[in-house]
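PROTEIN SPECIFICATION:
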Amino acid sequence: MIAIGGFSPEHDADPLHRFVVDAAKRPKPRICHVPLASGDFELFNELFYEQYPPSVCTPTHLQLLREVPRDPKEVLASQDIVYLSGGSTPVLVAGLRVLGLDEVIRDVWHRDGVVCGHSAGAHVSFRGCISDSLGPELQVFSDGLGIIDGSCAAHADSQRDAILRSALSSGRLMGPAWAIEDDAAVSFSAGATYAVSWRPDAAVSVLTLQASDVHADSLEVMPL
C-alpha cells in the first residue's frame, strides 16, 4: 500500500511514479488507474498514461460511472498495481462497495500486489480521514475501507493537523493517524512502513492518542 499525500505542480513527481512501478517487483507490471473519485475525469486518465507509459509498465484504466465495457472485478483482480486517483473520498468508498471492488482491492493487497493512490485515493484504504468532500469545511469521515488500521490526512497542513488532533482526542477517528504532506508518500508492507518524498522539505507525521494526549512523531523521509 502506498498512500500519497498529493502533488504540487512545481515539483516533478516522476521519481514517485517510478517508485510505484518498482514496488510491484516485476518487469513492466500491470497497473490500472481508477478515476472514480473524480467522476471518471478524463484529464486524470491522460495524465496517468503520461506518468505510467508502456515503456515501464502495462497501463490501463477502468471507467465505472459511464459505460463499463469490462467486468470491473476481473480487471482489478488481474492487476499488479491498482492506482486510485483523487477526488471525493465518500464517493470513492461508496462506489467501490456497491460494485464489490472493496474486497477485490483487499485481495490485491493481501496477495502482495500494490494498492496506491493520492488524496482521496490514499484516504480510502484507511478507517477514517479528514475530507474536504462533505461540505465547505474540512470534516471527519470515518467510514473508510479499513485495509490499513488507523486514519489518514492527505495534503497535511496546520488546519488538518488541528482537526486530526481533535478527532483523535474525541474518538471520532482511530489512531495511528498518518499526516502526509503534498509531495510525500508512505509505503506500508508486511516488512516495513516508511516515508518517501520527491521534495526535500516534505514531512510525514504519525499521531497517536496516549492517555488523554495526542502525541506526534515525525517520520524520517527518504528522498527519491
